[in-house]
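A common beginner's mistake is to predict each chain separately and then try to dock the pieces by hand. The better habit, illustrated here, is to supply every component at once so that their relative placement is modeled jointly.
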Amino acid sequence: MAYLKDERPETMMVEGDWQVGAYRWKAPRLLEEFSAGLKEKKIIGSMCMGCGKVITQPRHLCGRCHRRMDERCVLSDWGTITCFVISPKVEKGKYKLFGMDPVDTGTLKLGEILIPVFVRFDGADSNINCLLLNAKPEEVSIGMRVKVVWAKEPKGQMADLEGVEPIREK
Amino acid sequence: MFRNCAIIGCGQTKHTSRRRDVSVAELAQQAVQAALDDAGITMKDVGCVVSGNMQGFGGVAQPEQWLGDWIGCPGKPAIRIATGGTTGGSVGQGACYTVASGMYDVSIGVAWEKHSDSKEAGATTGLMHVGMGNLFHALTYGLSLRNLIATSAVGAAAGVAVYQAMFYMHRSGCKQEHLDMVAAKARRNAAKNQYAHLQWPNCRPEDIAKTETIAWPFRYGHVCPASDGASCIVVAEEKTAKRLCKQPAWFLGLASYSDEENQLQSENFGGVGVIDPSEQMGCRVSAKKAYAMAGITDPQKEIDLAEIYQPFPSQELIFSERLGLFDDGTAWRHMEKGETDINGRLPISVSGGVNATNAIGSSALQRILEAALQIQGKAGEHQVPKKVRKAVAHGWGGVTNYITCTVLGDSPR
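With all components supplied together, the output reads:
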């Protein structure tokens, strides 16, 4: 038998949709705990009693030891930048989220430069991925000390942790 | 240990961004037919079929049902393996397992991807199933859309890879210009590979440096394409391999290890203990195990060639160190000196690699296939001048935490 396509050149195109949103997932209530902490301006982590690692956001099982992480601790809201990325100036029509342009919806500002960073908060053995605020791209560096920028009125949601900003001497 | 087995036939399709002339079945059959022809056998001689593509991509949940007839599955055990980006690596290893275990004398491993079937760039709907449960979960708790877009707008694997690149660059001293060099090398090499996608003869690092920055340190020219394509290997046990093939590529060692789930966040938006995404413990461990099986004690001296899964240039450097080919943090210095070029001391990804051709499901199988071609001396224009005795093929994927490592050689263990 030879390559069949050679004998069967005709093909048609059919269109269809696949609804990936049509599910109901079960999820633990760990983020509830975490966001409740944010309302009180506290970053909560979970500790593994096997290896002593403190992970935030909290989780049920330690990824390395496979032990329960039932202990909770509150982390410092000071931390260190372990990694950063610099975006080009935000343009219109570059990408879409849920079919909408983030510039049109006002989520991102035209022409702004975003600096997503990894921050290791003091006391934690994991990173949190968030935005570096009130800083210029040229001044950011790995190892830079930062502190949390809290929302003015924390509501107990993930967005209460708006990002981090450099710790500056007054 | 396992029964000796070898790759005796390789087949792949030309990779392009849009293969609108074929269906998934027709695409896969093209690779299967090419591999069977290369091995000089027919489907009647094949005992078992191992197949796979990235789960959910192309909008098909069970593609093996569509294409089973086309690749000759009926009457045979058909196994589908899907391990994300590593799928091809697992398919290749799966085909080896079916023969090495003594269950079958000849098996084929076929992997493919057809990105162009999706209306979105890079079949993002397919990717979404990876993170959708997590994402909606976090949105319930008031995740800021602004933060979400800003931190992950660059997309799933690219998003992870750009942070990974920064970690690597910081600890090794590698600069953005070195990423340009790796990407230019991939495009140049691809120009010599008739099946590759992004071919750019005589591409220079300066050409890559002219492309626009998408998220510093990555430029547009650093990023892999989304390709349509398929690849297939024929695996046979020792006696059959020796009878049918002049120079089989023998499986010497293989391993696959997973690390903590670390697509920046773990399940249900929990944190991960992986501080440095360029650490890649899974790769260290699987390389160690595969080398031990192959009887390799010093990979820096004993490995002649490596095919590395490097959708982004930083990953060629990171993984070549993790595979033990260079000391920690020195890969870019060796690359800079031209040691990893096609005529260098240790050629890496001479096919152009994933950076030039990325039909995701097939990509990691292509690494095994290309390593086999180099051992068999059948790579054609991109055949390396030196004699390849032992080569290592690597795959990266899963939830960016899963690694396959396969060592091939020119003589059985």
